[in-house]
Amino acid sequence: MSTSGQPQFRYTQTPSKVIHLRNLPWECGEEELVELCQPFGKVINTKCNVGANKNQAFVEF
């Protein structure tokens, strides 16, 4: 902690606005992902069915 009582962070990069979802059902589509994620912010972009098993997705806010 710094002398002002605020925690100090080693990295100064801005936080990412992309989340990685895993273990999704095979039938999960882009529309369902957008509907699922909308309560957490405006969905800008999605990439579905990625990964070796095609059960992963990325969502950008």
TrEMBL record:
It comes from Eucalyptus grandis. This is RRM domain-containing protein. Pfam families: RRM_1. GO terms for molecular function: RNA binding. Keywords: RNA-binding. The keyword Ribosomal protein does not apply. InterPro entries: Nucleotide-bd_a/b_plait_sf, RBD_domain_sf, RRM_dom. Residues 17-61 form the RRM domain.
